[in-house]
Write a structure and sequence with these properties.
Helix content: under 10%
Number of strands: 49
Structural class: mainly beta
Low-confidence stretches: 1-21, 672-685
Length: 685
């Protein structure tokens, strides 16, 4: 602290010139970041960005006090603090507005702690952090709002460990007499114990007159937590009423043992003391839990209430809905699929007690015969996502509304997409065509996508390709009539019908030179959506060939376009299958850079892809400021990583690709039942 004061006085006296506002620094690098990372943090000006360019474990505890800055990994690096080291983000009581963003940093038996004590607004963004328990220390992300307003965003963090006590969580959000607003999306929270443990996976408590909004979407919590996988508390140890708005959508809580109260824990828990929790618990999945969803009160409470609604949830537990009748008000419930021995309340008219038909209780996605499919109250989910500005994706980061009637399923996971591998073998090939044998047979309306995968048979097919439906089923073909090589491989993704999956046919009005304008509600005015295309010869009005590599781009007209990447004129009546969805951790944009593309093949870093040779990602190329030319690309697996590679030319830094990973397919191929089938045409359950 004394060193900090001396530097502040020196700046005030003009003896030291502060670094420029908004500058990006690399650590380790030149001054002021030539020494420790902590000294770099202390030296740079507010608003600066520090990129960590080392894979050597960092043996420092890091402290950020009354600062606004960004701390993240430099491109191509995976930095981590060495074991038991931590990051603390704190403020004084006189702090004004602060903004801290920390991403892509690893911890082993360490933690991230942030609190705000000032009178302004603090924004804390923690994204892509990995906190792993390897010894006996506790690791967690904790945010405290003790003054003013604290806004925290937690996205795609992975935390494994044990809560330190009964009233703690691996993600811990707490406010005392202030305002705390938290958005927690797509986090993976896992207990490292095989039986039940104290605390919660995600624990939120507002007390002593605090207010706030909690938006929890797409999180997966695994383990038997006594308080609950997700636990929302009003007024713990407080006699002053607080008020919480809790929006809990599309989360999955997988407990340890449904038959034992001591190990199974609860899925979702809401407990009030003297104030109110306004809850919307919508489209969550609870599995292997002793208690499914709990609405209760703290001992000694006066007149607490828990209002709102509990709908569209899959609940597989010993006790399904445990609502304490002595609460001043209780949430309504309906459209839930409840497999439980008992519940404290009677079920509503649209509830179902039929078997949920899950793939596994530890992997609670739906089987094709599940009564949860297309059975949700669409209005509740749709308006809830809209009014609460939540993503329109499920717990897998895939489309939430799909199926023949674009109806949502009950629970956190949406059923219907199909991902498999096609290998062009002698018996499937006729000239430039290879016919697939898959679950798509007899389904001419399937709008499949395909990506060449060199690693299926270690054979390249350096030709533009498309798909079409013939009397034998769906087939892939080379647009230039080149013979289809034996053992050429393709990843095939057949999305379920519904918004985001459609055909585009080029026309005189849509074509401009080498591109054609796509117009659809899932793409128009949505530059951040992730868009894929594959030519569909059958969809074109006159079965047109297009022997050119294709990709997509977002234009100044606020629309997406499909383009011939070699600049060739786009023909009329050319059909394309198009798939579009919101970005998520499993649907994203990949940019080639010197760090991840040192030899012209772009590395695909992703937890579901790393060390997973049977994964089947989909990839579409984006058109940048220049045409990439006539070269085609494929993907391949090497040294525990997946890559995107040009088949004849290197991919240049700055080029971009859209990538889609189907988590269900990854589970299917890595589960012991399916692992022996890698490389074959494999469909979903």
């Amino acid at each position: 602290m004394q060193v900090r004061r001396l530097r502040i006085w020196a700046w005030c006296l003009g003896l030291l010139a502060p670094a420029a506002w908004g500058t990006t620094y690399t650590w380790p690098g030149p001054a002021p970041c030539a020494s420790t990372l902590q000294s770099c943090i202390d030296a740079v000006a507010d608003g600066s960005r520090i990129e960590i360019a080392t894979n050597t474990p960092i043996g420092e505890n890091l402290s950020v006090y009354d600062r606004s800055l960004t701390l993240t990994a430099a491109d191509g690096y995976v930095p981590a603090l060495s074991a038991t080291h931590w990051l603390s983000v704190t403020s004084s009581a006189i702090a004004g507005d602060l903004h801290i963003a920390v991403s892509k940093l690893g911890f082993a038996d360490g933690y991230v702690f942030a609190n705000y004590n000032g009178g302004g607004t603090a924004s804390y963004d923690f994204e892509d952090l990995a906190l792993t328990r390897v010894g006996s220390d506790n690791n967690y992300i904790e945010v405290q709002g003790n003054g003013g307003t604290t806004n925290v965003t937690l996205i795609n963090n992975r935390i494994s460990g044990l809560p330190s006590s009964l009233n703690r969580g691996l993600i811990h959000l707490v406010s005392s007499g202030a305002t705390l607003n938290a958005n927690a999306y797509y986090n993976q929270v896992t207990s490292t114990a095989s039986t039940g443990v104290a605390g919660a996976g995600i624990f939120a408590d507002l007390h002593f007159g605090a207010t706030g909004t909690l938006k929890l979407h797409g999180n997966t919590v695994r383990g038997g937590f006594y308080r609950g996988g997700i636990f929302v508390s009003e007024g713990l140890f407080s006699s002053t009423a607080s008020s919480i708005t809790a929006r809990i959508y599309n989360n999955a809580a997988i407990c340890a043992d449904a038959s034992n109260a001591g190990t199974g824990g609860a899925g979702l828990g809401f407990v009030a003391n003297n104030g109110n929790i306004d809850v919307q618990a919508i489209n969550n999945t609870v599995s292997r839990c002793y208690d499914g969803i709990v609405a209760s009160r703290w001992d000694g409470s006066t007149t607490p209430s828990i209002s709102g609604s509990v709908k569209n949830n899959v609940i597989v537990a010993y006790r399904g809905l445990e609502f304490v009748a002595s609460l001043l008000s209780l949430p309504s419930e309906d459209y839930n699929l409840i497999n439980a021995t008992t519940s404290s309340i009677g079920y509503s008219s649209h509830d179902s007690t039929a078997p949920a038909s899950l793939v596994l209780d530890t992997q609670p996605r739906l089987r094709p015969d599940s009564p949860a499919i297309d059975a949700a109250d669409n209005a509740t989910l749709g308006f809830g996502l809209l009014f609460n500005t939540l993503p329109t994706t499920d717990a897998d980061g895939m489309r939430r509304f799909k199926g023949a009637a674009a109806k949502a399923d009950i629970g956190a996971y949406e059923f219907g997409d199909d991902t498999f591998t096609h290998s062009a073998r002698a018996g499937t090939i006729s000239g430039h065509v290879s016919t697939m044998d898959s679950t798509l047979d007899g389904n001419p309306g399937a709008l499949l996508l395909a990506t060449p995968n060199f690693s299926v048979g270690n054979v390249a097919d350096n030709h533009p390709f498309g798909a079409f439906y013939n009397v034998s089923g769906w087939a892939l073909f080379n647009e230039d009539f080149a013979a289809m090589p034996v053992n050429a491989g393709f990843d095939v993704f057949s999305p379920a019908p519904g918004d985001g999956s459609f055909t585009h046919v080029t026309s005189l009005g849509s074509i401009s030179s080498y591109s054609s304008t796509i117009s659809n509600s899932s793409t128009d005015n949505l530059p951040d959506n992730i868009v894929f295309v594959t030519q569909n010869w059958s969809a074109g009005g006159s079965a047109v060939y297009n022997p050119h590599p294709v990709g997509v781009y977002y234009g100044s007209d606020s629309k997406w376009h499909v383009a011939n990447l070699d600049g060739a004129a786009m023909p009329q009546n050319l059909g394309f299958n198009v798939y579009a969805q919101q970005a998520s951790p499993n649907a994203f944009r990949l940019t080639a850079s010197p760090a991840n593309d040192p030899s012209g093949a772009v590395r695909l870093d992703h937890p579901l892809l790393d060390n997973t040779p049977c994964a089947r990602p989909q990839v579409t190329r984006l058109l940048g400021s220049t045409l990439p030319g006539a070269d085609n690309f494929d993907i391949f697996y090497l040294g525990a990583k997946w890559y995107v590679s040009g088949q004849a030319a290197a991919i240049n830094p700055g080029e971009q690709f859209h990538v889609l990973i189907d988590p269900r397919q990854v589970f299917d191929c890595t589960d012991r039942i399916f692992a022996d089938a890698v490389g074959e045409d494999i469909s979903d359950f």
